């Protein structure tokens, strides 16, 4: 029951490390676009509670968090037009999480595929937070009454749970929550440089947002390509090459055609193809890095942005939680 005529967009990033090109192309670039689009009211947060489900050295959050906020801002997220906050600064989200947990069956959580994957990946630390992660994510989404959630394909089962919880609560207790929708079609999966799936911190296959020009060139130079191109004269298939997929996100139509034709006819080598990609990656990162340097000089900026964001987010979320408390009969004294 969003009374706001603008569509509420919500998204967050975990503070497990420094952000990379995958985060930039897959999330930050869109965050910047949404924050400057008057049809949206945006809430962007750093998900520190979600971070501690897997991060063992939690003291690192203090180090990563301000860097991530600077990345948001340098990518063009306008903090005056959107609300930027830290998840744990809103205690009402934890309250909503508990209430929603009581509307969630254990069997529903057991069916979530991401839990099984994460439990395998973090077999030494399968904590209850990891199990309850989708309910906390539902609280993140339903607290600000989000209409639209830009999620990657891997997070879609969590969004489904949030939708189901919204519908269930509305049915049992009366219309309360906006039912969120995915913006998944706008999310892209950015491939890693190692020829496997997604670019990711733990996979060690990233171009980092603070990489120097030399570092970008060196990483792309050794990126895995179509294994069929053993020799310069072997034709290749761009569709089997992560370098080409990165081209589709960074290069012009002419460059794409040049590389695709050159690859399939073996008229260009991988080195030339990679040089074009490296040039375009550097051209994308350079203005971002310059803006970031200027922002990092502004003492107190991160604190001020998060403090203002916390006030706005808390007001909005507390309003929802108050309605929820009333609907289920929790009294205040
Ligand atoms: S020419 Fe380009 S697209 Fe083709 S295999 Fe080499 S790097 Fe990949």
Task: Walk me through the structure.
Helices cover 53% and strands 8% of the residues. With 333 residues, the chain is mainly alpha-helical. The chain has a three-stranded parallel beta sheet. Strands 4-5 form a two-stranded parallel sheet. Helix 1 links the parallel strand 1 and strand 2 (40-47). The longest helix is centred in the last third of the chain and has 28 residues, at 301-328.
Residues in helices, as a percent range:
40-55%
Low-confidence stretches: none
Overall 3D form: globular
Sheet/helix structural class: mainly alpha
State the end-to-end distance: 27 Å
Largest sheet: 3 strands, parallel
Query: Are any ligands bound, and if so which?
Result: iron/sulfur cluster
* Beta-strand content estimate: 5-15%
Q: H/E element string?
A: EHEHHEHHHHEHEHHHHH
Number of strands: 5
Give me the Rg, rounded.
Answer: 22 Å
- Strand order in the sheet with the most strands: 1-2-3
Nearest-integer average pLDDT: 93
Number of H/I helices: 13
Descriptors:
single chain, 333 residues, mainly alpha, three-stranded parallel beta sheet, two-stranded parallel ribbon, 13 helices, globular, binds iron/sulfur cluster
Structure summarized in a few sentences:
The protein is mostly helical. It has helices at 21-35, 48-51, 60-74, 91-101, 106-110, 113-121, 128-142, 156-173, 213-221, 242-250, 253-265, 270-296, 301-328; strands at residues 7-14, 40-47, 82-86, 148-149, 181-182. The strands form two sheets. Strands 1-2-3 form a three-stranded parallel beta sheet.
């Amino acid at each position: 029951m969003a009374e706001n005529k603008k569509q509420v967009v919500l998204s967050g990033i975990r503070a497990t490390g420094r952000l990379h090109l995958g985060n930039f192309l897959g999330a930050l670039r869109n965050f910047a676009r949404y924050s400057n689009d008057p049809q949206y009211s945006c809430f962007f947060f750093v998900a520190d509670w979600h971070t501690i489900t897997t991060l063992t050295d939690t003291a690192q959050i203090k180090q990563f968090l301000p860097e991530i906020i600077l990345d948001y801002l340098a990518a063009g997220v306008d903090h005056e037009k959107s609300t930027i906050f830290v998840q744990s600064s809103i205690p009402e989200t934890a309250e909503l999480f508990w209430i929603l947990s009581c509307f969630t069956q254990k069997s529903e959580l057991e069916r979530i595929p991401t839990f099984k994957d994460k439990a395998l990946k973090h077999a030494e630390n399968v904590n209850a937070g990891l199990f309850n992660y989708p309910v906390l994510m539902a609280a993140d989404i339903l607290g600000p009454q989000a209409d639209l959630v830009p999620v990657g394909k891997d997070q879609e089962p969590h969004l489904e749970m949030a939708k189901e919880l919204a519908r269930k609560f509305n049915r049992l207790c009366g219309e309360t929550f906006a039912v969120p929708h995915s913006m998944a079609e706008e999310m892209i999966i950015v491939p890693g440089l190692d020829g496997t799936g997604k670019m990711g911190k733990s996979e060690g296959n990233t171009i980092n947002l603070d990489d120097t020009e030399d570092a970008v060139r060196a990483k792309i130079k050794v990126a895995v390509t179509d294994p069929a191109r053993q020799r310069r004269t072997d034709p290749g298939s761009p569709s089997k090459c992560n370098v080409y997929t990165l081209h589709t996100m960074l290069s012009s139509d002419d460059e794409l055609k040049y590389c695709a034709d050159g690859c399939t006819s073996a008229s260009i080598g991988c080195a030339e193809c990679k040089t074009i990609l490296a040039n375009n990656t550097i051209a994308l990162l350079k203005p971002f890095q310059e803006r970031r340097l200027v922002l990092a000089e502004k003492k107190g900026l991160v604190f001020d942005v998060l403090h203002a964001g916390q006030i706005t987010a808390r007001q909005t979320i507390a309003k929802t939680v108050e309605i929820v408390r009333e609907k289920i009969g929790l009294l205040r004294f």
